[in-house]
Amino acid sequence: MDTRSIAGSSLSEYQPAPPDSTGKGSPKDTWRNKLREFFRWMCTPLGACITLYGLNIVAWGGMLFLLMCNAAPAMCHPTCDSLESPRRIWIEIDSQILNALFCVTGFGLAPWRIRDLYRWCCWRLARSDASRRNALNRLAEIHQNWFLKSQDPDLLPRTSKQSDQEIQWVTPTPLWKMDVVVWGNMLNSVFQLCLAVFMWAFNRFNRPSWTTGLFVGLACAVAGVAGILMWLEKKRVQKGSEHPGALLLIPRATDPIILGGGSANYSPVDRKP
After folding, report:
1. Comparison of pLDDT for 258 and 176, the residue scoring more
2. What does the pLDDT look like over 67-78, one tens digit per residue?
3. Taking every pair of C-alpha atoms in the chain, what is the biggest distance, in angstroms?
4. From CA 111, how far away is CA 58, in angstroms rounded?
5. What's the confidence (pLDDT) of residue 61?
6. Helix, strand, or coil here: 258?
7. What average pLDDT does this structure show over 126-151?
8. Is the dihedral angle over the CA atoms 163, 165, 166, 170 positive or is it negative?
9. Cis (ω within 30 of 0) for the bond into 78?
10. Where exactly are the structural domains of the chain?
């Protein structure tokens, strides 16, 4: 046998594996890093408040679900459907607590949602093109963490600090997604207001039974659609800007987008072998 092949095979056995070209570690290390980041965020004042808020919704919502399923037969006295039974009393208590928790976000975020709706009306309903551009630019700035606006040089002029190499081959976010997010957030506050009116204006004896389930379902549905759409769009934009391999899953834009404004023609660069 050739000595060179023997030496090559022996060296290949002890040669360390090349690092991952994607720059990602093992799945176990990735989850550990995510857990560390989550616990660090949870120790912040905002993270602690959001965590406590979420735990309250899960706890009281789970208790309400168990009561609705008759998971505690001892509370059905004299009967499960009796208005004076402990089961019906605790269902009312849980419903009022959950309604108050939902009002925190539904009413607390209402000023910002009304502001977005005003900008949306200026964008979609204004007669002046300048007013519509300014309103869309403002909305794009507010939602810049997930919304990628088409950088038309007529709308956003290019600065002198930018170069032709600062190009992102990511498709701009469709404008209809901004419509869904703005109206989804606003309708969440509207449905929450309707729920609060029925919960506080009526008692458990004369309140229509269909109102609670209807408005809770509608409020959760519109907020969930808006939240999922923002999350998916944010992941799409991040994936397209991180590495070129992800662009196989994302349709390319007809014109490349220059960071901050402007467009340029893309010409491939020949790499040396």
Report:
1. 176
2. 988 888 888 888
3. 95
4. 26
5. 92
6. strand
7. 91
8. positive
9. yes
10. 31-108, 110-265
Q: Encoding tokens for residue 25?
A: 């570690």
Nearest to 193 by CA among 89, 92, 109: 109
Query: What pLDDT, on the 0 to 100 scale, is given for residue 169?
Result: 59
Phi-psi region of 11 (alpha: psi -120 to 50; beta: other; left: phi over 0): alpha
- Extract the tokens encoding 11: 């060296």
Q: Evaluate whether 85 touches 74 at the Cβ level (below 8 Å).
A: no
Whole-angstrom distance, CA of residue 156 vs CA of residue 150: 9
The answer to whether the beta carbons of residues 118 and 182 sit under 8 Å apart is: no
Query: Which residue, 258, 260, 239, 113, is CA-closest to 184?
Result: 113
Predicted local confidence at residue 243, as pLDDT: 52
The span from the CA of 230 to the CA of 52, in Å, is: 23
Describe the crossing of helices 86-108 and 45-68 by its angle, rounded to 10 degrees. 150
